[in-house]
Amino acid sequence: MKKAVNSKRPVNLDLRTIQLPITAYTSILHRISGVILFVGIAVLLFALDRSLASEESFEQVKACLANPLVKLVIWGLLSALLYHLVAGIRHLIMDAGIGETLEGGKRGSKIVIAVAVVLIVLAGVWVW
User: Fold this and answer.
1) pTM to 2 decimals?
2) Residue 104 within a domain
3) Which Pfam families does this one have (predicted)?
4) Which residue from 26, 89, 93, 128 has the least number of CB within 10 angstroms?
5) How many domains does the chain have?
6) Residue 51: how many CB atoms within 10 A of its CB?
7) What percent helix, strand, coil does the chain show, rounded to 5?
8) Is residue 76 included in any domain, yes or no?
9) In the predicted model, is pLDDT for residue 65 greater than 60?
10) What CATH number is associated with residue 57?
11) Tens-place pLDDT, residues 2-25
12) Pick from 26, 28, 31: which is nearest to 106 by CA?
């Protein structure tokens, strides 16, 4: 009997040892940041609703936002937003036909990570 798949082909199912290219990491992070934004917007809309309910509710939300843990969550949401924005701009540039080669994709991914890190650090300084 012949096997349908070549048995000499290497199979690596250990996710800890798989070496993904930088383009894969930026793509995965773009998707993760989108999910974080989807959930985070619901939380922020709830906080906005509470702050607009009354003057007391506004003061409660204001006091809550002074909590260091809440500041960390806000910084996380801002980080997701900034990364998603930068990666989205990269996608728009690639849709225009710029950086579609393998080398261009790698260079674009490195630029996305560098710009996002700078913006995330600046956002952290602004929040804290």
Assistant:
1) 0.83
2) yes
3) Sdh_cyt
4) 128
5) 1
6) 17
7) 75, 0, 25
8) yes
9) yes
10) 1.20.1300.10
11) 555 566 776 777 778 888 899 999
12) 26
DSSP label at residue 98:
S
In this prediction, residue 27 carries a pLDDT of: 95
Supply angle C-alpha 41, 47, 48, rounded to 5.
85
Asked if the structure places residue 5 within a domain, the reply is no
Q: Which long-range contacts (CB under 8 A, 24 or more apart) does 30-37 make?
A: 30/83, 30/84, 30/87, 30/88, 30/91, 32/80, 33/79, 33/80, 33/81, 33/83, 33/84, 33/87, 34/84, 36/76, 36/77, 36/80, 37/77, 37/80, 37/81, 37/84
Sequence-separated (6 or more) residues with CB below 8 Å from residue 80: 32, 33, 36, 37, 40
Coil, helix or strand at residue 19 = coil
- By CB atoms closer than 10 A (0-12, 13-18, 19+), residue 94 is middle
27: in domain: yes
Q: Please give the residue range of the domain that contains residue 67.
A: 23-127
